[in-house]
Amino acid sequence: MGRTRGFTLIELLVVIAIIAILAAILFPVFAKAREKARQSSCLSNVKQIGLGLLQYAQDFDERLPATYQWYVQGNDWPLYSWRMCVYPYVKNSQIFRCPSDNQNSGDPSGAVSMLVSYHANPWIMPGVRGTFDGSMGTITAPAETMLIFDAWNPGNWCADGNWSGGKCSATCFGGKPAGLRVDGVDISRHNGGFNACLADGHGKWYQGGSEADRSYAKYWQKTR
Predict the structure, then answer these.
(1) In a domain? residue 2
(2) The pLDDT value given to residue 47
(3) pTM for the whole thing?
(4) Which residues contact 94 (CB under 8 A, 6 or more apart)?
(5) Most buried among 41, 69, 71, 99, using CB within 10 Å?
(6) End-to-end alpha carbon distance in the chain
(7) What are phi and psi of 204, to 5 degrees?
(8) 197 inside domain
(9) Given pLDDT bands bounded at 50, 70 and 90, which one contains residue 202?
């Protein structure tokens, strides 16, 4: 019987090199595909939450809740967030969590123990302690006006676009869309952008650093 011939060292090194090259090519593709699946899951979340907010508005004379509001009228504290208003309509705390969000932020009101990843547009759902105009009828372009969005640092009471001004005070400056921050820091969550639900109930992905990310009136303010 002849002796079985094995691989030489050179042959083994060539095979290992080929495997390493294939891995270097394929791993980024697999990672992007996995993130695309997470992006789709997140988009489903924001659409469900957005539809819950629209159902809330139907029950309250076509008015959206505030980003935050008194729990007891006339008292500064405690406050409750818009998520507490929409929760009875979605009845699932897990949809408030984006699968690509690793910040582990909780809702600041603490009324329901859950991790959160999304925030509300303060131009149509302002943060107040008292009366405000939450009327859906004053939104002149609902199909182009953001309702909620993927947020960086979502555990704050309020959020605003990635620009230097807006409705947020210094105490909640950190709440921003997960896009491209005004100081140039990339806080994108899904393939260079973020998901949002518009005021007509449909969901959409936006590129970080785009006009939508930068709080242009077309996407944020009630009237055009």
Answers:
(1) no
(2) 96
(3) 0.81
(4) 114
(5) 69
(6) 88
(7) -155, 150
(8) yes
(9) very high
Is 1 within a domain?
A: no
The count of domains in the chain is: 1
Q: 16: helix, coil or strand?
A: helix
Rg, C-alpha atoms of the chain:
23
Q: Among positive and negative, which fits the CA dihedral 178, 27, 36, 115?
A: negative
d(CA 118, CA 5): 61
Q: How far apart are CA 149 and CA 175, in angstroms?
A: 11
Single-letter amino acid code for the residue at 220: W
In tens, the pLDDT along 22-78 reads: 777 766 666 676 778 889 999 999 999 999 999 999 999 999 999 998 877 777 778
**DSSP label at residue 64:** P
Reported in sequence order, the residue ranges of 95-224 that DSSP labels E, i.e. its strands, are 105-106, 115-116, 118-120, 146-152, 176-177, 193-198, 203-207
In a domain, 6, yes or no: no
Cα→Cα distances 14→7, 17, 19, 109, 111, Å: 11, 5, 9, 59, 60
pLDDT digits (tens, 9 = 90+) for 76-126: 778 889 999 999 999 888 999 999 998 888 888 876 678 999 999 989 998
Q: Taking the CA of residue 78 as centre, how many other CA atoms within 13 Å lie in the half-sphere pointing to its CB?
A: 8
Structural domain containing residue 52 = 11-220
Q: And the tokens for 102?
A: 């690793």
Residue type, 194: F
The pLDDT value recorded for residue 87 is 93
